[in-house]
Amino acid sequence: MKMKSALYLSLVLVGLQVQALHIPNRSGEQEDQDTAHSPAEGENLAHLKIAPSNADFAFRFYKQVTEEEGNKNVFFSPLSLSTAFAMLSLGARAHTLSQLHKCLAFNLTELEEREIHHSFQRLLQLLNDPHREVQLSMGNALFINNELKLRQKFLEDVTTFYDSEAISSDFQNSEKVVNEINNYIKTKTHGKFVDFLKNLSPDALMILINYIYFKGYWEQPFKSFHTRDDDFFVDAKNSVKVKMMHQSKIHNIHRDEKLSCWVVEIPYKGDVAALFVLPDEGTMKQVEDALLKDTVSNWSQSLEERPIELYLPKFSISGSYDVKSIFIKMGVTDVFSNNADLSGVAEGDRLMVSKTKLLFKSVLQQLVTSEPFPVLDLLKSLFSVGFLYLPVYYGITFSTALQGRECIFYRRTSSPSQLKGLT
């Protein structure tokens, strides 16, 4: 019998173009001023150094997204964004660089720039480990106008630290470049992102791409014969019919009385887990306002094993956001303007991030396979002992990986009418 598996995808596309005004290089800046050198060797836990910063950035970005989206569902990969802009920071200088570091929550008094990039290097190696029990791949690529002369140091660093492919293309033939980029994205995301890029700005000189592909199965699989039609409650009075999966298992859970929410951890096979945060009715904003890495750390440390009955709907969800607008609110302004200093990227023309080609999209889907069902969201729970009944109308989910719990995906489900049901 065919069953379902969880598929998470994220894609960031950043376009660089020539600034409208040519501003001379600041005096005293030279190509060899780069602070990112060859990576240090032998530090297996190097990725843990950036985990706190990545968590801080993720929660700040999440709060900005929820402010803009209101009560809409939210789904995105903070790791995809932080990796793309950390890679871009290799070519940033002066105030442009400091703004990126501040937005990404990197404090150079605590962590040297070289250590930041070395940590991303180690993180990419761990996530792309072919021996992991989950199918997870993350990668980067540069599509470069063949007339653009990249600085050799930048090219070496993006290759060394971020394992980025560098692909030279004839940007004068924009249709050909768009097809090349879309074919690359389609291949790397196993056909799940098709025709992602519609056109190419005539000013574009380089396209930076980051992608994440994740497919995994729960340690304790769901049985297909336990799936049935059931109600997903939009509010206390209204509901919609969905396909609901069910299981009775022991999971790590925690009740936060102060924030009025339940927390449930459900592990995938491999060192990956989903942390479901389930606010009591009317307390979503209270919980979201308290979302900090220390809050999540306290939840994780307070988890206890208890029997639980899970009822979870099957659906797909996607999110696409105006990253430029959000980053500006987070203090990143220079890189999108004529004040951008990306002189470490290329010689000659001064570059800026394109005003029209900053694309970010994340997708969660289910694929038909011969493997067990995974869980896609938590609707309601029956907590034992005593079978305390807890109805849940919405929730927040963090999908984490690796020791140190690097957050790969965030999801908020607050409006089931926006979800795509699956049969």
Care to describe what's here?
The structure is a single chain. This protein is α+β, with helices and mostly antiparallel strands. It folds into two domains: 3-21 and 44-216 and 317-365, Antithrombin, Chain I, domain 2, CATH 3.30.497; 224-315 and 369-421, Alpha-1-antitrypsin, domain 1, CATH 2.30.39.10. Helix content is 25%, strand content 35%. The strands form two sheets. Strands 2, 6, 7, 8, 9, 10, 13, 14, 15 and 16 form a ten-stranded antiparallel sheet that branches. It is globular, with a radius of gyration of 22 Å. 46% of the residues are buried. Mean pLDDT is 75; it is low at 1-5, 17-42, 365-394 and 419-423. It comes from Anas platyrhynchos platyrhynchos. It holds the Pfam family Serpin.
Short description:
With 423 residues, the chain is of the alpha+beta class. The protein has helices spanning 51-69, 78-89, 94-103, 113-127, 152-162, 174-188, 284-289, 293-302, 323-329; strands at 3-18, 74-76, 135-145, 165-169, 204-216, 228-233, 239-256, 261-267, 272-279, 304-313, 315-320, 351-369, 380-383, 388-391, 395-401, 406-413, 420-421.
Overall CATH class of the largest domain: Alpha Beta
What is the H-and-E element order?
Answer: EHEHHHEHEHEEEEEHHEEHEEEEEE
For the secondary structure, the number of strands is 17
Specify the helix fraction band: 10-25%
Number of helices: 9
Beginning-to-end CA distance, first to last residue: 14 Å
Sheet with most strands:
10 strands, antiparallel
Strand content: 25-35%
Q: Architecture of the largest domain in CATH?
A: 2-Layer Sandwich
Give the structural class: alpha+beta
Spans of at least 5 consecutive residues whose pLDDT stays below 50 are: 1-5, 17-42, 365-394, 419-423
What number of structural domains do the residues give? 2
The average pLDDT score comes to 75
The CATH topology assignment of the largest domain is: Antithrombin, Chain I, domain 2
- CATH homologous superfamily title of the largest domain: Antithrombin, subunit I, domain 2
General shape: globular
Query: For the CA atoms, what is the radius of gyration?
Result: 22 Å
